């Protein structure tokens, strides 16, 4: 969710796009084709609009499609951060943990290990300063 077009080329928008493209490379993996589905929405801050919460929150669950929507309020400091990609992957992993708890409470089978393995396969490289 991008409230300001000026964010289109921001580090966080690029990181989200890159991660989505990387996940698309695994679209044939069985884990990506079965329910329940985890839908993660990143809410980017702007001068006009920002989320009224911090971190993650469960937004909704559609029983028919078995889709859980989780929202992430992106902190302003992440918009231009060199760590944006690692942040995106960390949020994905946190969302998987939250989904695991939600689906467990609902008594719905959820392959948390498979989802975590997929997130880990994204292979975000550590960035080190060169002295």
Main attributes of the structure:
three-stranded mixed sheet; about 130 residues; disordered C terminus; single chain; alpha+beta
Structure description:
With 131 residues, the chain is an alpha+beta fold. The chain has one domain. The chain contains 3 helices and 3 strands. Strands 1-3-2 form a 3-stranded mixed beta sheet, covered by helices on one side. A hairpin with a 4-residue loop joins strand 2 and strand 3. Helix 1 (11-24) crosses helix 2 (84-105) and helix 2 runs antiparallel to helix 3. The N and C termini lie far apart (37 Å).
Q: Can I get a quick summary?
A:
This protein is of the alpha+beta class.
Topology:
Layout: H1 11-24, E1 37-43, E2 55-62, E3 67-73, H2 84-105, H3 112-120
Parallel strand pairs: 1-3
Antiparallel strand pairs: 2-3
- Low-confidence parts, pLDDT < 50 over ≥5 residues? 125-131
Q: What's the β-strand tally?
A: 3
Shape: globular
Biggest sheet descriptor: 3 strands, mixed
Strand order of the largest sheet: 1-3-2
Number of helices: 3
Mean pLDDT, to the nearest integer, reads 86
**N-to-C SSE series?**
HEEEHH
| Integer count of domains | 1
Distance between the termini: 37 Å
Radius of gyration equals 15 Å
- Helical fraction equals 25-40%
* Estimated share of beta-strand residues: 15-25%
Structural class: alpha+beta
């Amino acid at each position: 969710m991008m409230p300001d077009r000026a964010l289109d080329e921001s580090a966080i928008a690029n990181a989200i796009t890159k991660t989505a493209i990387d996940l698309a490379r695994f679209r044939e993996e069985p884990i990506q084709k079965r329910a329940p589905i985890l839908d993660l929405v990143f809410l980017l801050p702007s001068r006009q609009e920002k989320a009224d919460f911090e971190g993650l929150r469960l937004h909704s669950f559609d029983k028919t499609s078995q889709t859980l929507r989780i929202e992430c309020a992106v902190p302003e400091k992440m918009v231009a951060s060199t760590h944006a990609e690692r942040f995106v992957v960390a949020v994905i992993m946190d969302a998987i943990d939250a989904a695991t708890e939600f689906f467990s409470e609902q008594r719905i089978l959820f392959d948390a290990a498979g989802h975590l393995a997929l997130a880990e396969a994204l292979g975000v490289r550590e960035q080190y300063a060169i002295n």
